[in-house]
Amino acid sequence: MSTVEKQLDDLKAEIAAEIPNDISVSDVTYEGPELVIYTRDPKKFAQNGDLIRTLAGKLRKRITVRPDPDVLARPTDAEAQIRAIIPDEAGVTDLDFHADTGEVVIEAQKPGMVIGRHGSTLREITQKIGWTPEVVRTPPIESATVSNVRNFLKQEREDRREILERVGRQIHREELSDEQWVRISTLGCCREVGRASFILSTAETRILIDCGDKPGAEDEVPYLQAPEANPLNSIDAVVLTHAHLDHSALIPLLFKYGYDGPIYCTEPTRDLMGLLTLDYLDVAAKEGRTPPYESEMVREALKHTIPLEYGDVTDIAPDVKLTLHNAGHILGSAVSHFHIGDGLYNVAFSGDIHYEDTRLFNGAVNEFPRVETLVMESTYGGRNDYQTDQADSEQKLMEVIQETYDRDGKILIPAFAVGRSQEIMLVIEEAMRKGKIPEMPVHLDGMIWEATAIHTTYPEYLRDDLRDRIFHENENPFLSSQFNHIDGGEDERRDVTDGGPSIILSTSGMVTGGPIMSWLEHLGPDPDTTMVFVGYQAQGTLGRRIQSGWDEIPMNGRGRSDTLSLDLSVETVDGFSGHSGRQGLVDYVRTMNPRPEKVLCVHGDESSVQDLSSALYHKFDMRTFAPKNLETFRFR
């Protein structure tokens, strides 16, 4: 008998001793980080609302209870009872029964009403029909991505269950090493922005954190060939802090080269990763580049993803627990906290953070039980990287829009599909609603509309007041009549170009490809147009060059190899970035509880990481580093 089998037998006996005699346990197994208990008495489990919570606390594991298939009510009978229990106002749009796991997926416009106070409605459903309910939100704006991901995972339930069982056994295997140490190896984004990638190693475990590309430098990828990362198929887990391509683009590549393990991230990060990586392949093909992997690898990544909620402490290896916390950067972005060993060491990877509240998100979390080392982004860590106050930034944007409108021009805003676009949409919607700027069409090109639909699917990840507005259809700001989704391609772009004043939000945010290139062809020669940069422009990108004053730009890769002259005005409005400025980064460390002993400053230009590292050292008398790529730090 294997160690895991014996462990499960012992757990089964312990559970049987803790629960009432009239509740049976037919099987106990692992699925990913969860312990799954199968029972012929799901209704009795549900009647005792504290039983699962008590077991989870005693066993120190996340627990799911599933009924044996032969004790379930027939789906037709069960559906009638479910609809009788759930209030009509919940807006149930679909019920999907899965007899293999005894789960019924309930899709509803208002999931909170399906869940009930402290889960009371869910327990009532199980008490009546035996099925275990799982609740998902019906997107207020129809999202092809969310629909496709959910349908794909439904089709792959059997494979996915096998993956989860294998991962569960790997997590709970016997520890093999008597040594105790912690190392971090840098595979990218050190003294540069882009290709974020790190290996967190212990004597027992290797975890890859992020695996992204470098904007504007397609040949510069993470150093996955380094000994610390190889062989890839022996990495225990991948943790993805958020979905931006400089962190996620090459996650599917891992599966091409043999990785077959779990990816941990939030649920919206999973969906956005699918959206952005598929678009990444599409853009590469359109520009005549050979994509680094096939779309099948994106599906493999989705199938291996285990979504976690903020604050859930989760075993991901025999000696590592992971907790994700809000990073305030984009939808689902997470500060990833690793608790290693039995109190041996604690490391937090910030990913990209925004410390202050924004219109979209609450500010990044910086309170943890323990943190000895912080790996911290430094995008705006330079001594002069102080961002404009948000109110002042919004006022400047309004002035640029008004001035351009007055000369009958158009406002062209290159923006990341995820995060900055939605922030700008909220600012514009409020300004038009309150009469601060004239009403005019706001055209959304590229993936912006789809990304916005995903935001509305997960309002619990947004600021409280915005979440409440999304719940009320008549107040959902993203459904404002001014917003128009460009879905007619070049014909519609020409119509917009020939029309009156308007605002155009278009990907890509750093002008590295995508529909923004078409808009430059249409509007670049127009002196009445204003191009407004509202997000970070990495070195080497076309956006940075235009921002720096280039008025002749190459248009290679669009069936031509000549240059385009720009006569439009160019403005930069700071303060809308999803990254904290210099002061926000310093404040994040200053108010961090507990304050870390060491900080590794990464994800910034060379001067930015060195400036921030020096500042933190002098202000807080802590050990700080500005590592280079392919360095390894040992902490124990």
TrEMBL record:
GO biological process, one term: DNA-templated transcription termination
Enzyme Commission (EC) number: 3.1.-.-
Binding locations of Zn(2+) 1: H242, H244, H329, D352
Beta-Casp domain residues: 421-546
CDD domains registered for this protein in UniProt: KH-II_CPSF_arch_rpt1, KH-II_CPSF_arch_rpt2, TTHA0252-CPSF-like_MBL-fold
SUPFAM superfamilies referenced in this protein's UniProt entry, alphabetically: Metallo-hydrolase/oxidoreductase (SSF56281), Prokaryotic type KH domain (KH-domain type II) (SSF54814)
Binding site for Zn(2+) 2: D246, H247, D352, H603
K Homology domain segment(s): 98-165
Region annotation KHb: where it falls in the sequence: 73-140
Domain Metallo-beta-lactamase: residue ranges: 194-416
UniProt entry keywords in alphabetical sequence: DNA-binding, Endonuclease, Exonuclease, Hydrolase, Metal-binding, Nuclease, RNA-binding, Transcription, Transcription regulation, Transcription termination, Zinc
Region listing for Beta-Casp, in residue ranges: 384-577
Assembly with partners or alone: Homodimer. Interacts with RNA polymerase (RNAP), interacts with the Spt4-Spt5 complex.
Function: Terminates transcription on the whole genome. Termination is linked to FttA-mediated RNA cleavage and does not require NTP hydrolysis. Cleaves endonucleolytically at the RNA exit channel of RNA polymerase (RNAP); the 5'-3' exonuclease activity of this protein degrades the nascent RNA released from RNAP.
Family to which this protein belongs: Belongs to the metallo-beta-lactamase superfamily. RNA-metabolizing metallo-beta-lactamase-like family. FttA subfamily.
Name this protein carries in UniProt: Transcription termination factor FttA
Taxonomic lineage: Archaea, Methanobacteriati, Methanobacteriota, Stenosarchaea group, Halobacteria
